[in-house]
């Protein structure tokens, strides 16, 4: 069995919980309150800005120029495709540049990005790909499941189309293949650590829906 298949099996329950999450069900049937999507969007813009940095660290840590180039292309795609889509949604939702500049991420968005940055700074390209792969692969599976649905809210229709599209499938498959190639070349303790990164990121993907659905914010004390 390929390493990626082992990892996919290990997170099956956690990914099923994401598929069934009220936030995703709300996008699918169009009943998700826009205030929750707005909270998601602000946190996700922060998340993607850190994600692009992690991809760029992958480029720097790659030992082959081919991978350096591809990881740079992926970082650029995060900026020019996903963050551009967010910008369009932000306009539709009345999110101003000032609001975005002053925005502080919720605890879960902060913790998830710290996890990826830690894997990236401390590890090699295999650690980085393992930590970022749920971000690609889970969204693609969600996009596939929701394909064909036409919720009344246009933002939700566009969101579904973006993640179920062919452009995204190719990027996901490329990172799965990269993970499997690296897994064949590293030690079993490397693979165990890579699996932990993948499982932790999958957990945070689920918690990200929960963060948006509960409008999570930092507690105030006293
Ligand atoms: C939290 C999260 N995970 C994944 C994706 C899809 N790249 C995203 N936009 N945000």
Automatic annotation (TrEMBL):
Q: What does this protein's UniProt record list under function? A: Catalyzes an amino-pyrimidine hydrolysis reaction at the C5' of the pyrimidine moiety of thiamine compounds, a reaction that is part of a thiamine salvage pathway.
The protein's matches in SUPFAM superfamilies, at most eight in alphabetical order, are given as: Heme oxygenase-like (SSF48613)
Question: What name does this protein carry?
Answer: Aminopyrimidine aminohydrolase
Matching Gene3D superfamilies, A to Z?
Heme oxygenase-like
Which InterPro entries does the annotation name?
Answer: Haem_Oase-like_multi-hlx, Thiaminase-2/PQQC, Thiaminase_II, Thiamine_Salvage_TenA
Give the record's subunit note: Homotetramer.
The record's similarity note reads: Belongs to the TenA family.
Involved pathway(s):
Cofactor biosynthesis; thiamine diphosphate biosynthesis
Q: Reaction(s) catalyzed by this protein?
A: thiamine + H2O = 5-(2-hydroxyethyl)-4-methylthiazole + 4-amino-5-hydroxymethyl-2-methylpyrimidine + H(+); 4-amino-5-aminomethyl-2-methylpyrimidine + H2O = 4-amino-5-hydroxymethyl-2-methylpyrimidine + NH4(+)
Classification via NCBIfam families: salvage_TenA
EC number(s) given by UniProt: 3.5.99.2
Q: Name one GO biological process term.
A: thiamine biosynthetic process
The Thiaminase-2/PQQC domain covers: 9-212
Gene Ontology MF terms: thiaminase activity
- Tell me which UniProt keywords the record has, alphabetically: Hydrolase, Thiamine biosynthesis
Q: Which Pfam families does the protein's record reference?
A: TENA_THI-4
């Amino acid at each position: 069995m390929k390493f990626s298949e082992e990892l996919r099996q290990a997170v099956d329950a956690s990914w099923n919980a994401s598929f069934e999450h009220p936030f995703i069900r709300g996008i699918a049937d169009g009943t998700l309150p826009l205030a929750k999507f707005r909270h998601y969007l602000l946190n996700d813009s922060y998340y993607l800005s850190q994600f692009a940095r992690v991809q760029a660290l992958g480029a720097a840590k790659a030992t082959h120029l081919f991978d350096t180039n591809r990881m740079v292309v992926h970082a650029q795609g995060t900026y020019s495709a996903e963050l551009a889509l967010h910008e369009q949604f932000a306009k539709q939702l009345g999110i101003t540049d000032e609001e975005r500049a002053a925005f502080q991420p919720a605890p879960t968005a902060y913790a998830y990005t710290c996890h990826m940055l830690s894997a990236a700074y401390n590890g090699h390209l295999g650690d980085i790909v393992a930590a970022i792969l749920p971000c690609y692969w889970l969204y693609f599976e969600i996009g596939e499941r929701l394909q064909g649905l036409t919720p009344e809210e246009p933002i939700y229709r566009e969101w579904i189309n973006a993640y179920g599209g062919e452009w995204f499938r190719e990027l996901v498959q490329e990172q799965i293949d990269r993970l499997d190639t690296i897994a064949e070349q590293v030690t079993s303790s490397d693979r165990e650590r890579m699996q932990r990164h993948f499982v932790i990121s999958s957990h945070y993907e689920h918690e990200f829906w929960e963060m948006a659905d509960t409008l999570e914010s930092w507690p105030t004390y006293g």
